[in-house]
Each structure stands twice: as C-alpha cells, then as structure tokens.
Specification:
Layout lengths: L1 E7 L5 E7 L3 H10 L3 E7 L20 H16 L4 H11 L3 H15 L4 H6 L7 H13 L2 H53 L10 H10 L1 H22 L2 H13 L3 H22 L4 H9 L5 H15 L4 H6 L6 H13 L2 H57 L1
Length: 402
C-alpha cells in the first residue's frame, strides 16, 4: 500500500510525500525515526483495474547474496566518481534480480524528486533491511557513502558464508535421515506384506515388533498417525508464535550439547560484527543496539539486548550490563570493557567477532565428526529393527516345524 503524509521537521519546515509500506503503523514508525512530526497521514487509494479491483502487488524480495553484490557494485561505482543517478542506472541494467531492477528505477525517480538516498531506500518498504537504511543516513551525514556500502557488502558477504556453513553442516544429516525414512517406508509397505503373505497359511502368532510394523502400514493407522502429527505440529506452531513460547524454544536450543554452542557462537559473531559496523559508521550505541537486535538469531539474546539497551538509557555502561547476563561470555565482556576504556570499542568487537567465527568453524567440524557415527547407528538401528521384525516370524515358523 502507499500512504500520503504531511509533517514538519524539527526546525519547523513543512514536508510531504508518499511512502510504500505494508501498514499505516509502519509508515508512522518510519516518519518518527526520521525525526518528523506528523500532521496528517492517509492511505492513497489504488486505481481500479478494468473489470476487477486493483490487486496488491506481490511482496518483493532479494536474496542476501544479491543484496551483497548490489552494495559491492554500488560502492565500486560510487568510489570511481560516478554520480549517484548514473550508478543506479548501471545497476538497473546489470542486476539479475527483477526486484532490484525495479528498486533501482524507483530509487532514481525518488532522488530526481529531491529526496535523499536513505529516504528513497525507506520508501521501498521491506525490500531493504533497516540496517542498510540507517547506515545510509549516517553515511550521507558524514559523506563516506562508498566506504559504508563497502563495509555493508562485506558484512552481508560474511553473513552469506555463515549461512552456507550452517547449511553445509545440516545437509548430510538431513539427507541420511530422509534416505532412512524412505527405505523404512518401502520395506514396511512393500517387503513386509509380501513376506508375511508367504506365511499366511501357517498359524503362528506374530511377534510384537512385526504387529507394530503391520499396524503402521495400514491406511487407517496411517491416517490417525498423520492426524496426531498434524495436531501436534499446529499446536507447536501456535505456541512458538508467542513471545513466551519462542523464548522457551530458544532457551532449550542453547542447552543442547552440540547444537547449542554452534547457535550461540553464530549469534555472537553476528552481534559483534553488526555492532562494530554500526559504531564505525557513526550510529549512536542505543540506535546501534536497536538495529543489531533485529538480526539476532535467538529470542534469549533479543531479551538480553533489550535489557542492555534500557540500562544504557539509564546511564549504565555496556560492559557492566553485559557482565550481569549469562548470555554474554566473559571474554566478550572483558573485550568490551577494554574497548570502552580505550575508546576503540568497534575494533575490539571486530577482534572478538573473528575469534567467534574461528570457534564456530571448530564447533561445526566437531558437530560433523560426531553426527556421522551417530547417524550410522541411528539408521542401522532402524533398519535392524525392520529386518528383525521380518525375520522373527520366520524363526517362529522354523521353531514350530522343528
């Protein structure tokens, strides 16, 4: 949807314009973040199409890798001395993502109307992350847009590598589990009934494992099982949509033996990189924490960041607040304390982030090394149970004959 607003700046100058947002509340939040005092805001009616009502355009999205490439190219072109509009024109022609091509065209139109780049980015709704918009505002104030975009590109490239590492670590276990499930279903649905049909004329009591597998192979039992799983999945989804449910889930994830350290180190590396990036770009600490909070991987860390943010507003130090929480390791607290005392907090955060990235690589390697034999044992146990269920009736028949 699009909304039209009238507002005043802090200096008392009237401003007006349009915004492309999801809701009116989101538009109000964006205008307040720009320091504007809203006088009037209303939704712009969409023109009706011939023979039907105007349909809402589909929500656009850009992969994180595409956004990193866009920022890297933008930084290179702008640092080479090209004007802003020329950079957007070239990026529109070179982009392989339709959403980015449309966004570049819209950004050029907004800038031609006299709006700044950050305002133009904000008008694109949720296509561009809040971190990019706020850092663009800071870059426009300091005049180092190319450097800020280069740092942002490096940050998103690092995020892409992190996601690839996590997916690589999860790909093998998922593949083995899916393969084990397919083999189990085929054996239960095809092999077991055929084998038992050969024993149909022989009156022999079937063992409990065989009866269990036969029950799972009947359509009625399968329907009940699917219904129970569906109800549990729906209840779990509804529960996790609540704040308390999400906090409980994320707290339990952090307590898992091998997965918990991986999640914690991935979050700590992202937190340190993002906070260092914001501070290097001149964003105040409270605003930087608000941006970093949106990139958190775990609800437990989000709650802790909200508590730290509230404490800083009361005048407490960052290291002091982090030391009173179990979510932040002592190493991070000590490095933050040294950075606050020496006045180079962003550099200390960057060093800690690199340390946690190395720790994350070690944790992922350890997880992969442990998961392989564990999966072999799991798959072997499932297949062995099925084979045992098939062989037990045969052994019973042989015992009866003997």
């Amino acid at each position: 949807m699009r909304v039209r607003y009238q507002a005043y700046t802090a200096a008392g100058e009237p401003v007006q314009g349009d915004l492309a947002v999801e809701t009116v509340r989101e538009a109000v939040t964006q205008l307040h973040n720009q320091g504007l005092f809203i006088v009037n805001i209303e939704e712009v009616p969409m023109p009706a199409q011939f023979g039907s009502l105007a349909r809402r355009p589909p929500r656009r999205s850009v992969p994180l890798k595409g956004l990193a490439i866009f920022l890297r190219q933008f930084s290179s072109l702008f640092s080479a001395g090209l004007p802003l509009l020329s950079c957007l024109t070239i990026l529109e022609q070179e982009s392989t993502y339709p959403a980015l091509r449309d966004a570049c065209r819209s950004l050029r139109e907004e800038i031609t109307r006299g709006r700044s780049l950050s305002q133009a980015l904000r008008s694109q709704g949720r296509l561009f992350p809040a971190l990019l918009i706020y850092m663009t505002e800071a870059a426009e104030a300091t005049g180092n847009l190319d450097k800020v975009f280069s740092r942002l590109a490096a940050n998103y490239e690092r995020e892409v590598r992190l996601r690839e590492k996590l997916w690589s670590a999860a790909a093998y276990p998922l593949f083995v589990l899916c393969l084990a499930a397919v083999v189990s279903v085929l054996m239960v649905r095809l092999v077991l009934p055929q084998f038992l049909s050969l024993l149909g004329d022989i009156q022999v009591a079937l063992p409990a494992p065989t009866r269990l597998l036969l029950a799972l192979g009947r359509p009625r039992e399968q329907l009940w099982l699917a219904l129970v799983i569906g109800v549990l999945a729906a209840a779990n989804y509804i529960l996790l949509r609540t704040r308390r449910g999400a906090r409980f889930r994320d707290r339990q994830i952090l307590k898992l033996p091998l997965i918990g350290p991986v999640v914690a180190r991935a979050h700590l590396a992202r937190f340190c990189h993002s906070l260092s990036l914001c501070l290097r770009s001149g964003i105040p600490l409270i605003s930087a924490l608000d941006l970093v909070k949106q990139t958190a991987l775990n609800r437990v860390f989000v709650d802790e960041l909200e508590r730290v943010q509230a404490g800083i507003q009361r005048g407490a130090g960052l290291a002091e607040l982090m030391a009173s929480s179990r979510a932040f390791p002592k190493l991070l607290v000590q490095m933050v304390r040294v950075g606050e005392e020496a006045g180079n907090l962003e550099e200390m955060l960057e060093q800690v982030a690199e340390f946690y990235e190395r720790e994350l690589d070690y944790s992922l390697a350890m997880l992969s090394a442990v998961s392989e034999p564990a999966l072999i044992l799991l798959v072997g146990g499932v297949v062995g149970f099925i084979v045992l269920s098939i062989m037990l009736p045969l052994l019973s028949v042989l015992g009866t004959v003997a």
